[in-house]
Specification:
There is one protein chain. This protein has 177 residues and is mainly α. The protein has 2 domains: 57 residues; 103 residues. It is 80% helix and 0% strand. The protein has 6 helices and no strands. The longest helix is centred in the N-terminal third of the chain and has 45 residues. The protein is elongated, with a radius of gyration of 30 Å. It comes from Hymenobacter cellulosivorans. This is Lipoprotein. Keywords: Signal.
Length: 177
């Protein structure tokens, strides 16, 4: 049995392709090229339609999100949500340098536990509470211990990641449907 090297195998394949090309007329090769071009055009058209549909769905999702974000949060619901998420730390404006870090821990503990059931509106309430915590942290930051602040920064990053993950999931779902 004879073994062919890669260059000789390539040359043999090119020779076979040349022989096959010799078996067709220029008109037949022209028709083959036209058929392949039609197939590519059809594929490109289908892909363009899919992209157009996905773009429309994403725009509808974005429009609905903007409308939802313009609606003010209900103060009673905000207070209830704050109580559920923060427990004894629900009165955010009274948090001290000693209690702000446990408040963030409580927020993240509850967010991890409940996030899978939350609607986008629930996330709006959670984000509102998160922003209030951040404002309180700004007000007392100079008195917060370094290790507590470092832990708070990690918790803030996690909250943002959880919220962004939900947004990405919802956008992906909206584009699929």
């Amino acid at each position: 049995m004879t073994r062919l090297s890669l260059p000789s195998l390539t040359a043999a394949l090119l020779g076979l392709m040349t022989l096959a090309a010799c078996d067709t007329t220029p008109r037949e090769r022209q028709e083959i090229v036209r058929d392949e071009a039609r197939k590519l055009d059809t594929l490109a058209d289908r892909t363009a339609d899919k992209l157009r549909n996905a773009g429309r769905r994403a725009a509808r999702y974005d429009s609905a999100a903007r409308i939802r974000n313009r609606q003010p949060l209900d103060p009673a619901s905000t207070a209830t949500f704050a109580q559920q998420l923060l427990g004894t730390y629900a009165d955010v404006e009274k948090l001290t340098p000693a209690t702000i870090e446990p408040a963030y821990v409580q927020l993240l503990r509850q967010t991890r536990a409940q996030r899978r059931q939350w609607s986008q509106r629930d996330w709006d309430y959670a984000t509102s509470i998160y922003k209030r915590l951040n404002e309180q942290l700004k007000a007392i930051r100079l008195d917060v211990k370094g290790r507590d602040e470092l832990h708070i920064r990690a918790l803030q990053a996690e909250f943002t990641a959880l919220e962004t993950g939900r947004d990405v999931k919802d956008i992906g779902q909206a584009v699929k449907d």
